[in-house]
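help with this.
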Amino acid sequence: MVEIAKAISSGARVIVFDEPTAALTDSEIEELFKVIGDLREKGTGIIYISHRMDEINVISDRVTVMRDGEYVGTLVTKDCTKNDIIKMMVGRTVFSEPKTASCVAEDAPVVLRCENLSRGKAVKGVTFELRRGEILGFSGLMGAGRTETARLLFGADKMDSGRIFVKGREVKIQSPEDAVKAGIGYLSEDRKRFGLILDKTVEENTVLATLDHFVNGLFINRRKARETAEQYVGELKTKTPSVRQYVKKLSGGNQQKVVIAKWLVRDCDILIFDEPTRGIDVGAKSEIYSLMERLAGEGKSIIMISSELPEVLRMSDRIIVMCEGKITGELPIEEANQEVIMEAATNR
């Protein structure tokens, strides 16, 4: 919000808003749109860049679509539908209907149980279970404690109290190394800061979590690492000139695929996806959704943290809602909708 205020205070005749709502709550987004409306009335031109289709329909007069660095076309917003825009973005029709029933078998075993995880005011007595093949959605407003819970589970932060059980056995997770040994992988919400080494190649990032598998004596088996990276580039359809390309030169969606590949090479049974589609286009988003569903179908268990309610409803078999560090709701997907989730997310 301070960055937005800075841009407005400059008195510019044209302001470019690049993903301005990525870290805002619904009420803050509403205030932002009021500000943009005032600027328009005063004659300021607005360029608004966003991957959120609903925002584009609300805020824009015209929509210009780009794909793979090239201009595709421009539409008048009131004369087009969301599907028209998406089809131009990805070159095909993408369907994203909410899930209506859980895909998890009733007798699926519990692979992860957390009891009373706590850390200061950020996480307060969080208890939940995750079953084999389940996609468990975590919803809530910014600062609700979702990411903080994931970081405790992965050992990135130290808990004040709590117990973690993996496949019925209690494990002591005091570092990410302990979590990886327990079969837990974590795709952080800030992939550039925590998930990748941007100045390293696709190959080097892909084998980062499994270097011990590629070492012969004192040296890394480069041929084996390259073949592994090429395998996952093909499986995930990562767009890169080669596995020797620096990760910093890839798009956001392809960077995310490299992070996913890193944990697939490690073959973790439990995967935490924290804001898995933030800042990526709808085509890559659809591919990541398909990948998550395939992994769940193969028996992997997924915790998905997302600030986008349509995404939570599209992917989850069950939804946990948090507010101010506590779990305030647990919903089977059959009973979940945006209103019920928001009620629990604001249940202070």
User: Anything to note?
Assistant: The longest strand covers residues 110-119. The radius of gyration is 21 Å. The mean pLDDT is 89. Residues 183 and 267 are 8 Å apart (CA to CA).
